[in-house]
Specification:
Length: 80
């Protein structure tokens, strides 16, 4: 299940029941950034937390994920 919310401190969260809460402000983001956020959480369905093999798995599905992280660091505050 995907739920759109006005999250205060994050772009999204994955619940213990594997529901995805997404920040409504992501609607202002470019599609590739939204794809990154969704991919990030889909990878968490397989690997919890952020160990090294999580990032290897993320890279397999989105090789340019670091560019998306950098974009959010620079532009994220404009979206909220």
């Amino acid at each position: 299940m995907i739920i759109i919310k006005n999250l205060k401190n994050r772009w999204d969260s994955l619940t213990k029941e594997d529901s995805l809460n997404m920040n409504v402000n992501l609607l202002k983001a470019p599609r590739d950034i939204v794809d990154h956020i969704i991919s990030h959480d889909l990878c968490h369905l397989k690997i919890k937390e952020h160990p090294h093999h999580y990032w290897d798995f993320m890279h397999k599905h989105m090789p340019d994920y670091q560019e998306k992280i950098n974009w959010l660091k620079v532009n994220g505050t404009v979206l909220v």
